[in-house]
Amino acid sequence: MEVITKRTAKTIYRDGDTVIKRFSSRYPKSDILNEALNQSRVEETGLPIPALRSVSVIDGEWAITMDYVEGKTMAQLMEEHPEKLDEYMEQFIDLQILVQSKRCPLLNKLKDKMNRKISSLNGQLDATIRYELHTRLESMPKHNKVCHGDFNPSNIIIDNEGNAHIIDWSHVTQGNGAADAARTYLLFALKDRALADKYMDMFCKKTDTAKQVIQQWLPIVAASQMVKRIPGEEDFLIKWVDVVDYS
Fold it and tell me: What sections of the chain are H helices per DSSP?
């Protein structure tokens, strides 16, 4: 088996025409089974995602096996062909709109997940800020769109025929699509603010969405991103956890 990538608690291998995501023994079994269940539910919507093959235990460690997709990520293509950036960004946003056009009633609710994450930040944000974030979250319109939860160009694979495949459904929920767009904006902004602004402009134009609608979600998604405690991100994110209204 060929190692594709290795992270703190999981290793992803290629084995012929399949990909095996193998989790460390300390990874909660319930999270692994929930990820597999979520992927199978999203697969039933007809979205272009790798098919789930199996959930198994390998040498005492849980693993999820799915179809392997030969190709390059959209992030790679954007870097290799900067002259096609607008074209790739348009395709990227069209895929996000396609995801949000689907409904999957058995998925967890985005608001519930966000509330849990905000509550868990008692060591990073004081009670007043957490209260304001909870209050803002509760005031947001309730929708039931499929929200990927980590929609960025690294999670789009373009195969050798030019077809797109969306991967990594471990964070999927159902909820307000503007929240998912805000998270995508933030993920871009962590690396390239100009690219983030380009995404925001194009997404809002394509979906006829006011920027303020997405900006209202930014403090909430920034707070939820802080839960990951990724080195170098916290100072950046804390600037976005601003509970005053945007104008």
Answer: 29-43, 74-80, 85-100, 110-119, 127-139, 177-189, 193-207, 211-215, 218-226, 234-240
What are the tokens at 83?
A: 């002259």
Report which residue type is found at 38.
Answer: N
Record the pTM: 0.93
Model pLDDT for residues 131-163, shown as the tens digit of each residue: 999 999 999 999 999 999 999 999 999 999 999
Burial of 52 (0-12, 13-18, 19+ CB in 10 A): buried
Q: Which of 40, 41, 37, 35 is nearest to 9 (CA)?
A: 35
Query: What sign for the dihedral angle of Cα 142, 145, 149, 150?
Result: negative
What the block records as the tokens of 227 is 């839960």
Residue 220 pLDDT more than 50?
Answer: yes
Backbone φ and ψ of 69, nearest 5°: -115, 120
Distance from C-alpha of 102 to C-alpha of 4, rounded to nearest angstrom? 30
Residue type at 231 in one-letter notation: P
Structure tokens at 201: 């402009």
Structure tokens at 167: 């991967």
- Facing residues of 99 across strands? none
Q: How many CB atoms lie within 10 A of CB 194?
A: 9
What letter would DSSP give residue 120?
A: T
